[in-house]
Each structure stands twice: as structure tokens, then as C-alpha cells.
Amino acid sequence: MRPVVAIVGRPNVGKSTLFNRLLGYRKAVVEDVPGVTRDLNFADVEVGGRSFTLVDTGGFEPSSEEGVTAQVARQCRLAIEEADVVLFLLDVLDGPTPVDREIADLLRRTGKKVLFVVNKVDGPRQGQGVFDFYELGGEELYPISALHKRGLEELLDALLELLPEGPEEEQVQEGVRVAIVGRPNVGKSSLMNRILGYERAIVDEAPGTTRDAIDTAFSVDGKRYILIDTAGMRRKSRIGLQLERYCVWEAIRSIERSDVSLLLIDAQEGPTDQDSRIGGLIQRRGKGCILVVNKWDLAEGR
Length: 302
Fold this sequence. Notes:
The chain has helices spanning 15-23, 67-82, 98-110, 124-127, 152-162, 188-196, 242-256, 273-284; strands spanning 4-8, 41-47, 50-56, 85-91, 113-119, 141-143, 176-181, 214-220, 223-229, 260-266, 288-294. By secondary structure, it is of the alpha/beta class.
């Protein structure tokens, strides 16, 4: 298996920007709003002849006990537990915060290899604040600007030194790619979690809980599948934020790279115009489509 590197930090410190920068393309949603990334996001990276799995996490608030922030915190803890190396991302503009100190204490107790990465160091003026972060206990600090690609080479050099030597990778057929698509809050993440048998995506009653496409591999009777959970697609006329537009684009891209799409329909509401439009997107791209009627137990007159 490839070594795992998790990017961890409190909300809005630039984790997804760094994730995308290390990948070289935009996979995670990036917007200057705390909490934009809420599910774990995985991607394979190859640098300097070495490969590893990079994990982008949501904004980590370890003390959260309820709601979506508590679910994010649980997923962050899972990512830390599975990681070989943790990139602890900090924001030089804010200086060390109580949440940063809480995360630093948690990481120290895990005994994991941790790189303390100070982000948003866009110039000499911001660089003056880097040394304040030594109070968090890191032996060395890595100042970067993920947005402007500064300091990334030094960070990657340090990261590669800490990575364990992985076994020679086997050539494995990628498998059948299955996209789960549908309107917001029809149960896409619940279906994904049920198929996999564990909580891979956050499930919440609020529409739009899933914002990024999430890829997860699993096997049935020796056959390998790649399951893609996508953000709910709303009609364009109802999309107000740039963030929502990107989620629609991400969902469409998931359909394009899938072999088969599971189109979820809410049994309580029945087929809607938007369900038909999503079905049309699948048909026009020549993908297989399976209609899945969810929440059948709640439908009247079933």
C-alpha cells in the first residue's frame, strides 16, 4: 500500500489549496469560506520517483461535540490515525490560535510524524510572524504560500524524507467506475456508506452536505469497483454562489469519468424535472444508468 499523508488544520487555513497545488489540478473545492471541505478527499501523488496517497481533511475543531463540525472532527481523527505523515497547516496571518494549540497537543499524543507548515507567507512581511509558531512544539517550521507556490519544494523534500519505503506497487485494474448522482438530500451519501459498510461521507439532513466528489474502491465477489459520491445538483437558476456552480461542474465531471451512474430519486417526491435533466446528462454522455428509488419506506401508498 502507498504511504498516506494527511493535511490537517483548523478551518480556512488553506488545506484544499495546498492539496490542489500538490496534485497540480483542482480536485477539492476551494473558497474563502470556513468549512468548505467537509469530507475526506483522497488522491494519489507521485513526486521525485515516490508515490503516496494525499488526504485533504475538513476544518478540524477537536472540541466539537455535535453537528457537522463534530462529524468532520471524527473524520480528521481517522485521517490522522491512518496517516504515516501529517502536514499540520497553520495560518501566519492569524498567528497561533487556541484551536492550533489543541490540534498540536492532539498530534503530539499520537506520536505521528508531523511537519508544521505555516501557510500564507506571501512575502517578507508575513515571514516575520512564522517564528511565533515554534510555541506549538515543532522542531522545524516550513513557511509556504500554497496560493503562490512558494516553499513547496522544501516542504516536499522534507516530506519525502519522512515517508516510509512502500512495497513495490502491484498493477491492479482500476475497476468499474460507478457515480452516485441526484438532487441534494436524496440520500447519495447514505447509500454510499451503506454499500461500503462504514461512514465514508458525512450524512446530514441539510441539503448540500456533500460538496466534493469522493472516490472509494471496494470489491464484490472479486470484482473491483470505484464508487463516486457527488454533490447534489441543483437547477442553474437556483444556484447563487460560485461554490454551488463548482459543485455542479464536479458532479458532471464525475458522470463523465464513470462507467455507470446510479441516479437516485426521492420516493416521497417522485420523479421531478431536475431528475429528468440529470438523466439527460447521463444519456448524452453515453453512460449506463440505473434508477434507484430511495426513501421508499417513507412514501405514501407504497
